[in-house]
Amino acid sequence: MAGKNLIRLTLALVLAVILGYGLFMLSNLSDSRPQSVIVVLKNKQITAQFWRVVTAGIHAAAEEYKLNVTLTGGSGESDVDGQIQAIEEAIRQKPDAIVLAAADYDRLVAVGEKIKKSGIALILIDSGIRSNVADSLITTNNAAAGTRAGQLLHHLLEPESSVAVISYVRGSQSAIDRESGVISGLQALNRERRTETFYCDDDQEKARQTVADLLRTHRDIGGIVGLNEVSSLGAAQAIDELGLNGKVKLVGFDNSYEEVAFLQKGTIQHMIVQMPFKIGYLGIQAASDVLNGKKIPPFIDTGSAAISKDNIDKDENQQILFPFLQE
User: Fold this and answer.
1) How far is CA 298 from CA 79, 108, 161, in A?
2) Strands (E), the chain
3) What CATH class has 142-273?
4) Which residue range or ranges hold the Periplasmic binding protein domain (predicted)?
């Protein structure tokens, strides 16, 4: 009898050791599992140069911080419903964090709050929402950049000239802030904005046609501000096609090879260039910091620079315009 009890005790101890070791290994596997981050962009079809560079920053940080990152989004900057659906699907996948470039300042508030209620960290990049629910917003100070654009344009114009503003989409915080910045910059210098803001729905051809029509019907317009890459390129095309290079002044936002070509040609006088690689990289870095219990600031300004034909060849501006050629 004593021998049987000893065998049972030995078996129980062996089973306990095996169970304990199994739980230990499962715990280690869980701890070593890469943390997951879903990045929800405005447009999952990444075509604009700005978003290609943002994405490069995202991938670089994902590799450095050993995060499992996937990208999704709507079908375009104006596809708010599509982005909301993409966020809902991301929540269902239960990642550790969501990094979001919000397509609409107001309509994404509810789903943003749902992210946090689901226990998922939320980092906003490029554009925010009308809520303080996010752990951090990482973007350009778009109001200040807009003010700078308006003031730069003012100093290029004759006193009687007026200004038109071409935006890319309604409802995006970045577009709202840039527009308000441009207007405040012009008003501070007593410059008239001739027309209401026009929206191209992030469609370059629509921006081109809108500007062409404006310049044919409003001969007093001497300057235009394009608030992103697409609106700026559309405006530049219209000015160039009408033979108004240098006569109608253009200040654009963002950076692409096509914009640089128009700058060199004299169609664009200034480009307000953001730091897209930094936006993407810091968005993922912030997610990693939050997941590891580190405190991060609620707002991180990634900066911008004004590039003109006069300063484009400076080393620091070449690094901003062509970051991948400097490595």
Assistant:
1) 27, 18, 40
2) 36-41, 68-73, 97-100, 121-125, 136-139, 162-167, 198-199, 221-226, 249-253, 270-274, 299-301, 304-308
3) alpha beta
4) 43-295
pLDDT at residue number 29: 43
- Where along the chain do its domains lie? 35-140+276-296, 142-273
- 3-state helix, strand, coil split of the chain in percent (to 5) is 50, 20, 30
CATH homologous superfamily of 35-140+276-296: Response regulator (3.40.50.2300)
On whether the CB atoms of residues 174 and 144 are closer than 8 A, the answer is no
Measure the CA–CA gap between 165 and 250, rounded to whole angstroms: 10
**How far is 229 from 253, CA to CA, in rounded Å?**
6
Whether the per-residue pLDDT at 325 is higher than 50: the answer is: no
| Six token digits for residue 265 | 């040609």
- What percentage of the chain has pLDDT greater than the value 70? 88
Q: Give whole-number Cα distances, 3 to 7, 9, 46, 274, in Å.
A: 6, 10, 72, 79
pLDDT digits (tens, 9 = 90+) for 274-308: 999 999 999 999 999 999 999 999 999 999 999 99
Q: Do domains 35-140+276-296 and 142-273 have the same CATH topology?
A: yes
| 278 Rama sector, left if φ>0, alpha if ψ -120 to 50, beta otherwise | alpha
- Using DSSP, state whether 137 is helix, strand or coil: strand
CA-nearest of 224, 154, 174 to 195 is 224
Query: 205-262: per-residue pLDDT in tens?
Result: 999 999 999 999 999 999 999 999 999 999 999 999 999 999 999 999 999 999 999 9
Structure-block tokens of residue 183: 């207007």
| Predicted TM-score of the model (pTM) | 0.84
Contacts 24+ apart (CB under 8 A), 213-217: 214/164, 215/239, 215/242, 215/244, 215/248, 216/242
